[in-house]
Amino acid sequence: MNNFSFSILVFGALFASCLTHVRSDASDHRYKTGDHVLLYANKVGPFHNPSETYRYFDLPFCSPDAIIKEKKEALGEVLNGDRLVIAPYKLNFRDEKDSAVVCKKKLTKMEVARFRSAVEKDYYFQMYYDDLPIWGFIGKVDKEGKTYPSEYRHFLYKHIQFDILYNKDRVIEISARMDPNSLVDLTEDKEVDAEFMYSVKWKETDTPFEKRMEKYSLSSSLPHHLEIHWFSIINSCVTVLLLTGFLATILMRVLKNDFMKYAQDEEAADEQEETGWKYIHGDVFRFPKYKSLFAAALGSGSQLFTLTVFIFMLALVGVFYPYNRGALFTALVVIYALTSGIAGFTAASFYCQLEGKNWVRNLLLTGCLFCGPLFLTFCFLNTVAIAYSATAALPFGTIVVIVLIWTLVTSPLLVLGGIAGKNSKAEFQAPCRTTKYPREIPPLPWYRSAIPQMAMAGFLPFSAIYIELYYIFASVWGHRIYTIYSILFIVFIILLIVTAFITVALTYFQLAAEDHEWWWRSFLCGGSTGVFIYAYCLYYYYARSDMSGFMQTSFFFGYMACICYGFFLMLGAVGFRASLLFVRHIYRSIKCE
Question: Any stretches that span the bilayer, and where are they (predicted)?
Answer without folding.
Answer: 228-251, 293-321, 327-351, 363-388, 394-416, 454-473, 485-511, 523-543, 555-583
